[in-house]
Amino acid sequence: MTSRDFTIEELLQHPVFRQWVIERDANAAAYWQEWLQQYPHRAADLAKAREMLLLIGGPSHAPAANDAAETWERVLQSIDNGGTKVLRMPGSQMRRWWSYAAVITGILIMTYAIYFFVRKDTLRYATAMGEMRTLELPDHSLVRLNVNSTLRYSDKLDNGGPREVWLEGEAFFTVQHQHNNRRFIVHTADVDIQVVGTEFNVNTRRVKTQVVLSTGVVKLVLNKKGASGTAPERAPITMKPGDMVTYSSATEELSNKKVDPAAYASWRTGVLSYDETPVAEVIRSLQDNLGVVIRMEDDSLGLQTYTGSIPTNNIDVFFKTLERSFNVHIRKTGANTYTIVNQDDK
Amino acid sequence: MYGSLDDKALWARVMEGDKDALAFIYNTYFPSLYRYGMKLSPDAHLVKDSIHDLFTGIWLSRERLSATDSIRFYLLASLKRRISRQQGLLNRLTDQSSAAMPFSGSHEEVLIGEQTDKERKEKLEKVINGLPRRQREILYLRYYEGLDTQETAALMSLSVSSAYVLLSKALNYLKQHSDKLICLFLGAAGSAILFLTCSLLIG
């Protein structure tokens, strides 16, 4: 077999090839599909290289959903403790007990400190651009906070009444069910999201709140125009898994749609997914999530749709697809600013 | 915005004490590190502990870190060092032969790829297990993790030229054996034309 362009070795070394086979990236898939149209006789080689790469990867262990977050929390703890090792392998039971004791003492001191100094305050967690954080609430519910977002809750969260938190920005909630069916309420400027135990994504950017339900049931209470309180104007909405409800209390605009919840929660893994999304909306989302500013010389591009996933650490994937599909050119105009120009005007 | 920084600049941020930069690196590489770690040792706790130690270590010694232009390489190499150190300790305790552990599967493994039928899975395992451990590892680092040959060689304590030799040996083996597998697969999928092409390739 002779090859005119990529040999099997070259395919295996090609970063986009890896993206296609391993990460199953839609844009990478498109790239190879196009390539095949150019070199149809290489179909067998491409299939073979793909097969080989899967073989090389071998049987693979994917980390459990919360492994990354859990380990990171431990890293943070150890860092704050100035390097005290948190947990060791068997063989040093004594040391393990000492570290437990240290942690418990730490928790006791912290609880005491919190009780004394911030007992009337709300706890507030904020993330900067480029920073994501996982918070464990006192009831063991998990909140994955996306970049540039804030979560507040009262230190009385675990005092018996409903569990209440306030969100600005975007977060994914995994709410722990409690035996007495204690309610959990997420307040945003537009809605109150009432649940018992479930998983859902909330995004409050762009003067509206968008709730996407992954599992369980959610009751949505819409806020009155202009009011930041909880007075409902319409009957509460009951959401089922796969439902996406968007509501703006400013414009009283309400929309309901069936979606793939995974696509709306994919930011948690450092990937943004879009399915037939208008380019203008993709650009807004990149602005929210990556802090980049993208200008379009020709606004009509914004109406085109985009399907695919963009790793948050590699915006070039998106740019390459745009350049390939719409005959445009992306010009970097500053550290975090880009302009999309028509190819002909270049 | 860390996504736009190259490895060198991102690493410099960590050295200057930017904890968010470390978090960004962690989030980017955790899946890769976990995957590679599980290939070195089937013990998920040990792997996670080693990743924990790795990042804690980076942060606490950030002022003494040297610059790097390949964070992926730095992390994989450090993880490997940590895991083998831990494993050395464990092996001395339990006397497990090192050949039985690394780069072999356990019972709970999940096959990457959409063809999960049992027969095919067994065949795949047979092919990859037919390779010596070092060859499996070098293929994995070079092609699956995408390190360059120099980095791969360094990680495996090989000279660059012996890395090339080992790599091409492993690749040839795989090329020959994957031919048979592709045909099996395509045959099963009922694609007659491709199946024919395949037979021609082998014949």
Please provide a written account of the structure:
The complex is a heterodimer of chains A (346) and B (203). Chain A has 9 helices and 20 strands. With 346 residues, chain A is of the alpha+beta class. Chain A has a 7-stranded mixed β-sheet with strand order 2-5-6-8-9-12-13, with no helix packed on it. The two termini of chain A are 41 Å apart. With 203 residues, chain B is mainly alpha-helical. In chain B, α3 packs across α4. The longest helix of chain B is centred in the last third of the chain and has 30 residues, at 160-189.
What is the topological layout?
The complex is a heterodimer of chains A (346) and B (203).
Chain A: H1 8-13, H2 15-21, H3 26-38, H4 43-57, E1 59-60, H5 67-80, H6 93-117, E2 122-126, E3 133-136, E4 142-145, E5 150-154, E6 163-168, E7 170-174, E8 184-187, E9 191-195, E10 199-203, E11 209-215, E12 218-222, E13 237-239, E14 243-248, E15 253-258, H7 261-265, E16 271-278, H8 279-290, E17 293-296, E18 305-311, H9 316-326, E19 328-332, E20 337-342
Parallel strand pairs in A: 6-8, 17-20
Antiparallel strand pairs in A: 2-5, 3-4, 4-7, 5-6, 7-10, 8-9, 9-12, 10-11, 11-14, 12-13, 14-15, 16-18, 19-20
Chain B: H1 7-15, H2 19-40, H3 44-60, H4 71-94, E1 110-111, H5 118-129, H6 133-144, H7 149-155, H8 160-189, H9 192-202
Helix pairs in contact in B: 1-2, 2-3, 2-4, 3-4, 4-7, 5-8, 6-8, 7-8, 8-9
